[in-house]
Amino acid sequence: MRNTLRSPSSRRTAAILTAALALCLSGAAFSESPPPSTKDRLWMSANYLEHPEEGLYELQYNAPTGLVFASVMDRVRRDDNLGYLYAFDGKTLDIKGRYAMPYRAFSLTQDAKGQWLYVGHTQAASLRISKVDPKTGKVALTSERLHVDPSEPQHEHLRHVVHSAQTGELFTAYIGSVKENDKYRSFYKLLILDGETLKMKGEVENAFPSVGYALHLDRGTGHIFTAGSDYINEIDPVTRKVVHTIRLDDKIKPRVNNLVGLAVDARGGRIFASQFIHQPRPDVKDEQDGLYVFDRNSGKQLAFVPTGKGGVTLSYSPKHDEIYVSNFRGGTISVVDGKTYQITRQIPAHVFPNMMALAADESALYVGLKQGFSKQWNPDEFVEGAKEQILRVTLDRDAP
């Protein structure tokens, strides 16, 4: 048998050579740049709400706390009118808080500095707005029930809400209906509340001249935008006047029927809008759902991108020059290049992607995933055990 034992001198020689080789290798490593990251820029993580009967709706990224807030309501015990505000860690999505709200929570916004969150309680049984401290989750104030004329409207709802830094006021979309000749007629308003006291101060005339659900604040100009079945309005919150209207006539291809999402590229002078057909109709094709791009000043249509069925909401990142569209019925999130208007990635959500929010530094996109709907997307049909989720999509290649 061969003797494999070495003498002490030979072992010392081998150790010296090994150390010298390691030193050379380490020196070479430090003298060169590290290899580029191979991590996919659009990698994803997710977390769930705590209870399957809860429904997740609007999102806000709060820069001072680094938290993502989500408005949540109990969709099963409707008569109990239960609402919550969830706080997720902006990087890990760990749940940092689950705060009880006075009523069911749907809409959500914040002031420009992120000092206050505003929660809209949408249903007719509540129809109020609460002011919440994002650091503690405590409700500082809840408005009185919002009153509009006529005095006895039916089927009232609050939709989206925005906060104007220029006036310190809240602007919230309101939908009601009245019975006329045995039929119901819906009407749409943009109500104004004081941001400190939450007292009603009036409304913006003709903000929603016909059917309209979309509401967006452009922080670049401070102007507010609304949109609906055949128009996009630009509103000056200081004068409370519609200062510009884009008419969506038959020249728009494909024909616009129901714009529900808005975003503005203030620097590039563009308006992005998403169309969502709630229910299949014989006169409307699914191909009409998607992303519309308009010149902000002339109103000229610059592009249409068929992103998928049910383009419910969108977000624009100036940093990446990308538009993100959540295709509710299509179960995907589209990433659209802002220069070519080509879809560069179709992110599978597998369920119903809904509302979205961008991180303050645009390093991540947050998307609410509606898992509680039935296959017929009926919000009144509860799917046993299906918890809803928040999804985080990393936009910067080396972001954590």
Describe the structure.
- By secondary structure, the chain is mostly beta strands.
- It has 1 helix and 28 strands.
- The longest helix is centred in the N-terminal third of the chain and has 24 residues.
- The secondary-structure class comes to mainly beta
Residue windows where pLDDT falls under 50 for at least 5 positions: 1-38
Measured by DSSP, the beta-strand proportion falls in: over 45%
Q: What is the first-to-last residue Cα distance?
A: 56 Å
How many β strands by DSSP? 28
Gyration radius (Cα, Å) is 26 Å
Helix content: under 10%
Mean pLDDT across every amino acid position: 86
What's the total helix number? Answer: 1
H/E element order = HEEEEEEEEEEEEEEEEEEEEEEEEEEEE
Largest sheet entry: 4 strands, antiparallel
| Dominant shape | globular
Q: Which strand order spans the largest sheet, edge to edge or round the barrel? A: 1-28-27-26
